[in-house]
Amino acid sequence: MNDAQLTIFTPTYNRGYIIKNCYESLCQQTNKDFYWLIVDDGSTDNTEELVESWKRENKLNITYIKQENSGKHVAHNTGVLNCKTDVFVCVDSDDYLTEDAVSVIYNQWEKINSNHSLAGMIALKGYANGKPTGTRMPSGINQCKMFDLYQKYGFKGDAIIILRTEVLRKNLFPVFDGEKFVTEAVVYDKIDQEYEVLLVDRLLYICDYLEDGYSRNILKVHRASPKGYMFFLSERINYAKSLTDRYKAISYFLAGRWRVKHKQPIEYLDYKILYLLAIPKAIIIFIKPIIKNLLIKFGVFK
Fold it and tell me: What is the pTM of this model?
């Protein structure tokens, strides 16, 4: 055990029907030395009553904050700014942790305390049957940037990311008027410019993809928040380290514009020739999910 303390942050919105799974998994942790910080994004169901009943049970140290409905990214900012511990991890209200997750986080954090190049750690998410959502962590690599984990080392699937609170305070989500979603990658990309993360090849987080979740409705979510989505894609262009990476980022930027039907003028024209060259690749990126959905619809593959 080290001196660092952990906050488990849970943003929630009308998840009273399922957040109990998260609560019970926290009650079952082999190490209960943590705080549970819940930020309710304006729920209209029984979430507040449930949380109050759990606080009376006194099994966990719970802080509950209710805000006006503003989106998960704003709830995340609220959580970070109200966090009183050194370590911060987000666990969604429809997911839960393995019983040893907190113990593993503390054990691994000893490697992070003495290494100021690390912002935190990244471990595996998986399903209730114990299988990861994607691949295992790459062998022979102890730490790297989050972007490189996927793009350079070929990691696939979702991951749980545990970070220093001080790093998150310096990298809050941008907020756009009238929009309620900004992808987490905006924050992680920014953190990548200065830090790496420790790779932990352990399954710590159990998830499901519900019909009312972001993952199942990502296109609809992006179309409802185009400024945030285009900001993410434009930042990827700015962060690109090579001509090849910038070409790829511009291709996704163009395809993203078409996908969310974003009609505002393109402001990022520092690479005019690359924009022209990227159009064919952007077309492929744009039509690929359309073709896939059609094939699924007609039963060609599932």
Answer: 0.91
